[in-house]
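User: What would this chain look like folded?
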Amino acid sequence: MSCHEALSKPRETVPPGVSILLVSAVALIDPRNMVLITERPPHKDMGGLWEFPGGKIDTGETPEFALMRELHEELGIETRTTCFTPLSFTSHSYEKFHLLMPLYACRMWQGVPRAKEGQKLAWVKPADLQDYEMPPADLPLCFAIQDYLQNA
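Assistant: Here's the prediction, encoded as structure tokens.
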């Protein structure tokens, strides 16, 4: 539905009891401007869909600290908060929760990303990101990454 169409309808309300899920994600960008995406394990919610590395922000963590932790746990790489450039964010309502997710760009890290949790990894050209089936919240981020790399 377009903004114009939405304005002709009553204002939406947040369903009672909907929780806000804070997640942080990163576009790891290699020297060829390829972007790393990971496939969600089949046993998890939205299993089999591709996404940007990252994860839930724990209590007391900033989005950047959550990314440092998640990248170490999931991919075995080290990075620091100063390596993250804020890029975009997404706000998306799912059936059971509302997702808020900042997306960062990162071009420098130590180590070689490897699948420590059994997930599949793919280095993808920015123009090909939308060829991978992703959760609805991630799709707008693909275009933000394309714009960022086109103007970099």
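The CA atoms of residues 43 and 126 lie 27 Å apart. If you want, I can go into more detail on any region.
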